[in-house]
Structure formats: C-alpha cells, structure tokens
Amino acid sequence: MSNKLLVVIGGPTGVGKTDLAIQLAAHYHTEIISADSRQIYKELNIGVGRPSLAQLDAVPHHLVGHTTIFGHYTAGHFADDALNILEKLFSLHDIVFLTGGTGLYVKAVIEGFDEMPDIPIEINERWTTYWKENGTEALVANLQKLDPDYLEIVDKSNPIRLIRALAVSEATGKPYSSFRKGKQTERPFQILPIVLDLPREELFKRIDQRVLNMITSGWEEEARSLHPLKHLKALQTVGYKELFEYFEGILTLPQAIAAIQQSTRRYAKRQITWWRHQGSWHSFSPDHDKSIVDIIDFHFNARGKGQGARSKDEP
RNA sequence: GGGGGUGCGCCGGAGUUGGAGAGCCGGGCCAGACUGUAAAUCUGGUGUCUCUGACUGAAUAGGUUCGAGUCCUAUCACCCCCA
User: Fold this and answer.
1) How many CB atoms are located within 10 Å of the residue A179 CB?
2) A63-81: per-residue pLDDT in tens?
3) How far does the CA of A267 sit from the C1' of B45, in Å?
4) Strand B nucleotides, any atom under 7 Å to a protein CB
C-alpha cells in the first residue's frame, strides 16, 4: 500500500480549499475526506461552509455531517474514522484527498497521536466543574500532585490543557506525561502536504463576503433552530455564538454580522499561524491549480519508484 | 451671532482634589503556543529611537507655577442650548 498517496490540503477558512479539492478530486477521479471539526456535525450546515449538494454530488465526500452535536467527538475519533475510510478508499484509488481547516485533525491523521486510553467524559466534566468553582490555580495545584513533570512544560493558564492532563492522569492512575512519547506514527501511504495561502487583505475580503453569503443563504434560520442547544460544545463556534447573541437581543443583526466577520478573521489568523509552523508544507495560492496538479503528478510518479505507470480509477 | 460643554493611544470606557503617566480596563490589530473541547483554549506585544537605555507625548500656540494632562489666555474641532 506504500504506493498510495494522500494529498493533504490545508489552509485558513475561506481560502478556497473546498473548491480546489473538488476540482482536483474530479481530475484524479477520486474522493475527499474532510478534516473539519464543525462540518462533521449533521446539524451544522450553512454556517460551517459545508460543500453544497451539487459539490457533494460531483465528488464523494467522507466525514461530513456524519455525527451529531449531541455526542462527544474528538480529534482522536476523527483520526480513527479517517484511517478506516482511507483504507477502503486506497483499495479503490491510488490518490485520496484530505482537506480541511482543522489543523489538529489533520495532524492526528498524518502524524498520529500517542497511544492513550479513552477517558470517560464524566471525568473531564468533573474537572471542568472543579475548575469553574475553584479556578485555574487549583488545577495547577492538583496537577502538581498527579503529574509534576507535565506541569513544567504545560501552559499553566490554559485550563483546557490542565483539565486534559488531570483527567488522563486520574483515569489511568499514571501521569499524563508518561503517555506522551511524541513519536510520529508510520502510515502505510505517502503524504503530500499542501497549504493554501492568499494575501491577508484578499483572504479577509473573501471571508467578509462569505459571511454575507451565508446570511443570505438562510443561516439565521438554521442557527435559530439550534439556539436552545447553545450550551453544547459543538456550538461554541464562530458565527453561531454571535447569532445567538442577536437572538437574545444583545446584538443587532448588522452588529452580529460584523462580529462574525471579525471572529472569522481571527480564526483564520490562528489557522495561518498553525500551518506556518507545521514544517515544510508546499504553499500555493488556490488559483495555481496547474502547479498543484504538477506537484501531485510529480509525487505520484516518484512514489515507490519503478512500480509502473499510474492507473486511472474507474468510478 | 450669544451662552455652555468636551478635546491624550487604532477604538470604547475609567481616572487624575496642581505632585512620578509611555500610561488603568475592555475591544481591535500584530505575533505566538497548542497530542483527544482545536471554529475550542491560552500567551505576548501594540508612541519613537541608535531599544538592558533614552527621547517625545494629554487638540494647537502661549502663560502662571518649584512642578500643568489638571489653572489662565487665544486659536481650532466637535456637541448642546438660545437666536
């Protein structure tokens, strides 16, 4: 299976990943796995920029709308699901695309996480409650007992990280840091990482326009029906949060739209930072699809050298 | 035209009874971290410079004072009231 190629397309929201991936997947007669932590939910559609029905029809997509906002889905689950699907897809295709804006999900697939047991959600929730009642310093004090080694490297003001470490340490009876080997997992396929990039000004213009398009596409209705569920983690999401404030009379609609555009820009910045520091990814503007095809072809032909010409897959 | 008020940071707010502001809070912006909440969560920076230090700075120009963002005068801008 080592002559299979996974083409990963990352980049900030609104840069044009979806369109490009569909174009490329159609060109190579293959399929797409989406790596997007919000498009995975069947209840979220317009506001998370899911591919349109026509697009989904043109190229088969995986891991879009396959779980519900009521569940507890994590990057680890995503990696398992994606790898399972990849195994099937690679039995049909030589090239498969993995595209999406959730850096951690992509990383989990291409590099792998360290082996760790599943932690019951209740333990996590208990520490979260503890944190809300006692504050971050109290988490640090507890971690000092359970995993002093990790405490030396963890961001002590980040409750999410502290809670994770406490939950793992408590549930397993072993320090969280003892599981953290940080070694990359070998994958039975080759990986071509590509990140899409645009000048900041242009990207932000596209983001602003995209938000307006979502509104005219009926996002407000979608969000209104989810308003009663605003406490769910899956709805701690750019756009939905602001629309909820609009429904609650905290913001006017124009204010909410402006706030969504702003939050989206800030989110995009965080994604840019992530990929900027993920090592040697090939960076392209999304309209340089020709050069991208070239580099894919190059890698495809170079893989498992001498293994014969590439075969076209039948649909 | 007359009277009153306000004026410092990219923006909003707070505050200074004449006694140390490169400076409080929030936002924005820039930069960063991130191995199971990741569209989440968290951190730093944000006048200028020859940058471990120095310089300039409270609308503008003067004045009073040991000392002015604070008091006085003029000018400018904006707001309110009367014409």
Assistant:
1) 17
2) 999 999 999 999 999 999 9
3) 19
4) 28-43
